[in-house]
Amino acid sequence: MHAPDVNAFLRHHIRTVPDWPAPGVQFRDITPLLQNPQVFHVLIDAFVHRYMSRDMRPDVVAGLDARGFILGAVIAYQLKVGFVPIRKKGKLPFTTVEETYELEYGSATVELHADAVKPGDKVLLVDDLIATGGTMMAGKNLLEKLGAQVMEGAAIVDLPELGGSKRLTDAGLPLFTLVDFSGH
């Protein structure tokens, strides 16, 4: 499959749930991508093929809580590199660094083990979806606190109308997404 075919194929398998979790929200549910083995394989291959080349290969993959764990761990396994989880506050047992970010109503904090990456590591940061960009920005900041270089942020879905992808690229983070839901 060529890239446009892959994007259309994946888009076809993303379920839109209207009015969830609140009225007016069009929730983009990626679980159908994971349930079908063929679709899951195409999804993971789309990421892996991008990051196999020497100039794009990360030293480690970091996944954002929680769906970024699913994708990131499998991508890391396929690339034969390590995986580190960026968790919601209070979930990691060892010494952590933390980053708090703003949500629409309130704030949230994510944490990373202090020894998760080394200074100079090239890190691929993975999540399922980019909406406002807050979680991915917090993950980027955490990794950079430890001296890592976040080479790219990767996600299945971009919701550009919510401003996250612009915010992230304006902050110097290159992005790679497979499906764009602008204006839909």
TrEMBL record:
The entry's keywords: Cytoplasm, Glycosyltransferase, Purine salvage, Transferase
RNA-binding listed as a keyword: no
UniProt GO cellular component terms: cytoplasm
Domain Phosphoribosyltransferase per the UniProt entry, residue ranges: 33-161
Keyword Glycosyltransferase: yes
Record's catalysed reaction(s): AMP + diphosphate = 5-phospho-alpha-D-ribose 1-diphosphate + adenine
GO molecular function: adenine binding; adenine phosphoribosyltransferase activity; AMP binding
EC numbers, comma separated: 2.4.2.7
Family: Belongs to the purine/pyrimidine phosphoribosyltransferase family.
Protein name: Adenine phosphoribosyltransferase
Species: Comamonas piscis
Gene transcribed to yield this protein: apt
